[in-house]
Amino acid sequence: MANKKINTIAIFSVFVAIVMLQTFIPCLGYIRFFPALPAITTLPLTVTVFGILMGPKMGGFLGFFWGTLSLFRAYTQPADLVSIMLFQNAVIAIIPRFLAGVVPGLVGKLWQQRHSTRNYLISVAAGVASTLTNTLMVILFTSIFYNHSSKLMSCLGYTDTSKSLIIVLLTALSFNSACEAIFTGILTPLIVVPLRKVLSKRL
Predict the structure, then answer these.
(1) What is the structure's pLDDT at 28?
(2) Which residues contact 171 (CB under 8 A, 6 or more apart)?
(3) At what angle do helices 56-76 and 90-108 cross, to 10 degrees?
(4) Given 3-state DSSP classes, what are the helix, strand and coil percentages for the chain, each rounded to the nearest 5?
(5) Structure pTM?
(6) Can you name the residues that pair with 30 across neighbouring β-strands?
(7) Burial of 147 (0-12, 13-18, 19+ CB in 10 A)
(8) DSSP H or E stretch at residue 191
(9) Which Pfam families does the record cross-reference, listed alphabetically (predicted)?
(10) To pair with 32 at 20 to 30 A between CA atoms, which of 4, 81, 131, 161?
(11) How does pLDDT run across 132-175, given as a tens digit for each residue?
């Protein structure tokens, strides 16, 4: 039991270090295609892999840590006005990231080691679900906190304030979300399957 806890802490520490590197090293965790929009992030992949391997509780912890770093980064290293307006809000910065860690852990509970094809599909589904959870929760909370913000609308390139903010956000972030979902969905099984085999012998 003690060895299992030590291994869990060690694995968590490794993933915390990876999240920190992705957060603060340019073009590693955040890839920017459009200057006015938030960057495409590769961090859901890291959180998804950890959530599947370690379960929803630990996945939530890592997601919460990612969200806290997002909040810190929005104040110390803001890259664009949209990110400043969104991620300097603790709810928008933290809760979607927390849920992005919990969801793949819950999906990962469906894992059946005897069915490799099913395992592959489950890991793909977990990766896509984590990414979409993060994006949709950011959009939902943004529409709640900034429902009548003409400043945010103008930053997104919309001068017609009569449009629904949630529709505008879905349109503006659809490219980001699609890229993140494809990236995470493809790479998650390639990382999770061998790691799970190794960890199953240690935990």
Answers:
(1) 84
(2) none
(3) 150
(4) 75, 0, 25
(5) 0.86
(6) 41
(7) exposed
(8) helix 174-200
(9) ECF_trnsprt (PF12822)
(10) 161
(11) 999 999 988 988 887 766 666 666 666 665 666 777 777 767 78
Distance CA 156, CA 30 (A): 19
Domain-wise residue ranges, the chain: 2-200
Angle, helices 116-145 vs 43-54, to 10°: value is 120
Measured from the Cβ of residue 47, the count of other Cβ atoms closer than 10 Å reads 32
Q: Which CATH class is domain 2-200?
A: mainly alpha
Q: How far apart are CA 140 and CA 55, in angstroms?
A: 25
Q: Other CB atoms closer than 10 Å to residue 164's CB: what's the count?
A: 10
State the Cα–Cα distance between residues 166 and 163, nearest whole angstrom. 9
- Look up residue 32 and give its two tokens: 């920017």
Longest Cα–Cα distance of the chain, Å, equals 60
